[in-house]
Each structure stands twice: as C-alpha cells, then as structure tokens.
Amino acid sequence: MDANFLVKQLRFARSEMMRCLDGVSEADAIVRVHPMNCISWIVGHLAQQEQYFWVYAAQGKALYPELWRQVGFGQPASTPPFAEMVQIWREITNCADEYLDQLTPQLLLTHFEPDGNRSPENAGTLLLRNTYHYWFHTGEAHAIRQQLGHLDLPQFVGNFGDARI
C-alpha cells in the first residue's frame, strides 16, 4: 500500500471539510441542530482524533490534553468557540503531519502502544478511519449549514489536485 497516497487522501478530506466551512460565522458555528453537535464541536472533535492517533499515539505528545473532555466521543455536548477550535485543529494537524510525512508502507502495518496498550488497529487502518471520519462529519456539517439556511454551499467534491491516483 502506498502510504503517501493514503496521506494525500486524508489531506484532501481535511481540505474538503475546511471548504465546507468556508464563510461560517462564529454564531452559526455554535448552533446545535439537534440531535447533531454544532460545527465548532465537529472541528474540535476531528482535531482530537488526529491528536490521539498522530500526535499522542504516534509521537508521544499531547498539544491539548484536555480536548477530549470537551469534544470527545461520548462526552456531553458542548459548543466551543469556532475560532478556537479551528486554531487548535490547525496546530494539531500541523503536528500530525510531522508524523504522517514520514509514513512508509512498513509503518502502516505497525500498531501504536499508547500508555502501554497495543492498539487493535494498525497505523494504516487508523489512517483510513481518520479519513472516513472526516467525510462523515463533512456531510454532517453540510447538513447543519443547510438547516441553518446557508446558500451557495459546495455542491460536489472539489478539485482533486494532488490527491488523484
């Protein structure tokens, strides 16, 4: 499996999420359209997953160790500030890229051992999980924007650019 190709796909999914959020106001980003979480939560939630996989498990670092309590799966709903979540997302994805830029086909087969516990999924599976997680929440954010009455939303997956096969 080509690690570089999989990383490009993750980066494309990230860019599509950010394209979907272009023009979202701080006020709209914290509106909950029940039962969904708000858009700012989605951004923080995706950052939290990247932090866990690529920063903590892969590199042994945690830029925002309390982020999970705010936007983690199973935690109470929250409406964190949008600008703050976007900034945190940028910092975490930049740090995650330090690891992702070094991925090789061999490393895709490794299992992380955060806190001494071997992950049941290897790095390649986590990379796919992370990419698909972005697509799931990009669709959700798009639906929230539609419910909020936003017009001129992206209608289709954008320019593949370097993400092409």
How would you portray this structure in words?
This protein is mainly α. The chain has a single domain (3-155), classed as Four Helix Bundle (Hemerythrin (Met), subunit A) (Up-down Bundle), CATH 1.20.120.450. Helix content is 58%, strand content 0%. The chain is built from seven helices and no strands. It has helices at residues 3-20, 26-29, 39-59, 67-71, 82-100, 105-108, 123-147. α3 packs parallel to α5. The radius of gyration is 16 Å and the shape is globular. The two termini are 13 Å apart. The mean pLDDT is 94.
Summarize the structure.
The chain has seven helices and no strands.
Which key terms come to mind for this protein?
globular; Four Helix Bundle (Hemerythrin (Met), subunit A); 165 residues; mainly alpha; 7 helices
Q: Name the poorly predicted regions.
A: none
Question: How many helical elements?
Answer: 7
The CATH topology, please?
Four Helix Bundle (Hemerythrin (Met), subunit A)
Query: What's the CATH class, please?
Result: Mainly Alpha
Shape: globular
H/E series, N to C? HHHHHHH
- Residues in helices, as a percent range: 55-70%
Q: Helices and strands: which structural class?
A: mainly alpha
DSSP E strands, number:
0
- Structurally, the number of domains stands at 1
CATH architecture: Up-down Bundle
The oligomeric status of these chains comes to single chain
- CA radius of gyration is 16 Å
Major sheet characteristics: none
In what range is the share of β-strand residues? under 5%
End-to-end Cα distance: 13 Å
